């Protein structure tokens, strides 16, 4: 298994289908149907942003997943102290490839990137009904420190 940085927006768009389809299944009222051309255009528009890092996970030269992370720097304000974090936007593992340690390997690499950049916090969010993500992040030592709520009117 190997993990490398990539800017291959077409491959990222293809690998995104797995996580996007899960989101559609859980929240059909929130998510559009997966459209490869739109995803490809979106990822093409952001792959050159310096703060974004895309990690490609491969096994035997076969792409099986990716992580999209962002190196963030929060300034000091009257309310909060300045800090840096690695924000995990997405982790997507190919269909039928779950529970093989691929997500954990990506998370290990994300931790290494954080350490290399002098960052000691990794942040992320996930949809409440995504039990797979909830268990995965709990297993990897993440704790809740803030909740995001909404009300439809």
Summarize the structure.
By secondary structure, the chain is α+β, with helices and mostly antiparallel strands.
List the helices and strands and how they pair.
Layout: E1 2-5, H1 9-26, H2 36-46, E2 52-59, E3 62-74, E4 83-93, H3 102-116, E5 122-124, H4 131-139
Parallel strand pairs: 4-5
Antiparallel strand pairs: 1-2, 2-3, 3-4
List keywords for this structure.
153 residues; Aminopeptidase; globular; Acyl_CoA_acyltransferase
Describe, in plain words, how this protein is organized in 3D.
This protein has 153 residues and is of the alpha+beta class. Helix content is 35%, strand content 25%. The chain has 4 helices and 5 strands, in the order E-H-H-E-E-E-H-E-H. A 5-stranded mixed beta sheet has the order 1-2-3-4-5. Helix 3 links the parallel strand 4 and strand 5. Helix 1 packs across helix 2.
């Amino acid at each position: 298994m190997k993990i490398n940085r990539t800017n291959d927006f077409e491959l990222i768009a293809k690998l995104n289908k797995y996580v996007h389809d899960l989101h559609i299944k859980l929240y059909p009222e929130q998510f559009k149907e997966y459209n490869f051309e739109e995803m490809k255009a979106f990822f093409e528009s952001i792959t050159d942003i310096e703060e974004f890092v895309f990690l490609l996970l491969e096994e035997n030269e076969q792409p099986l997943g990716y992580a999209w992370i962002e190196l963030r720097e929060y300034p000091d304000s009257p309310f909060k102290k300045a800090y840096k974090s690695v924000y995990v936007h997405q982790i997507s593992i190919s269909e039928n490839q779950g529970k093989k340690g691929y997500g954990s390997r990506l998370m290990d690499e994300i931790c290494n990137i954080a350490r290399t950049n002098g960052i000691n916090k990794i942040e992320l969010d996930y949809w409440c009904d995504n039990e797979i993500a909830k268990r995965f992040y709990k297993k990897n030592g993440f704790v809740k420190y803030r909740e995001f709520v909404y009300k439809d009117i």
